[in-house]
Amino acid sequence: MLHELLNLKRPLLVFDLETTSSDPEVARICQFAFMLFKPSGEVSSYATLVDPLVEIPKAASAVHGITDEIIKFGCAKCRRPLNEHVELRDSDIAPTIIDHEFKPVPQFRHLGPRIATGFAGCDLSGYNVQFDIDVMERHLLRECNLLLDLDGVAIIDPNGLWRVQEPRNLSAAYEKFTGKKAENAHDALADVRMTVESLIGQLQLWTTVPREVDKLHLHIWPDRIDYSGKFVFDQYGEPCFGFGKHRGKPMRMHVDYLRWMSRQGNWSSPVTRIVKEALEGRFPEKRHESPRVEAEG
What we know:
Layout: H1 2-5, E1 12-19, E2 29-37, E3 43-49, H2 58-64, H3 68-73, H4 108-119, E4 123-125, H5 129-144, E5 155-156, H6 158-165, H7 170-178, H8 188-205, H9 213-220, E6 231-233, E7 239-241, H10 255-264, H11 269-279
Parallel strand pairs: 1-4, 4-5
Antiparallel strand pairs: 1-2, 2-3, 6-7
């Protein structure tokens, strides 16, 4: 278990949120779950649906499976409606086993004080956990007038650890996929040759990745609307800014920033076209089977 691999001085709270949006400013929590690892070796877990008090976008429901109907009629623990919440009895024949009573979905304001207390004194972990921390901080302040005190808190993100342990530079890729030591790195022609050999090694190792160049392009850049990443799709398929002060925020919510971009006139042709169309009310739509995202021109 995790506590056997880490030298825990304080409890480690590993948590995750499901939300209505990937923009932390507007995201509303619709599920909260955690596992708590104590230095003593004790492990506990908890999960509950949360009423976001707003309509859940269909794109968000497609990702995490939580719908308005589930929030309204479902059990906070198992999502089942009351009429499917069967208790195990001796007289039942092959009943559905539910090991808890039906619990209506609570609002965050009912959970916030206990969550803040539970976070106190803990180190934190989660995959891409910064987003979850941002959303949690905003909810505690807005709904409960509570501050999440992170002073002195250690934060462990497996995604960040992965990047540190396996650097993604060319020399590292060359050694990983060819088994040879990189030489003359940063000599242009040597770098080209290492790139070619690295790509050959990757294609030989990952036999299921697309072989068509257009499809491989989309496989590598699935969320970019233009190649430079000025515009990207979030996890729900919503077109967002990929740079600047509105990075990660939906395009349609910051039309003023699009107008600013249109006045600059120094963008690539794909970016210029995307801005023009968005100002006309035509926002990009994610095409899952599209052969290519926009390339820089």
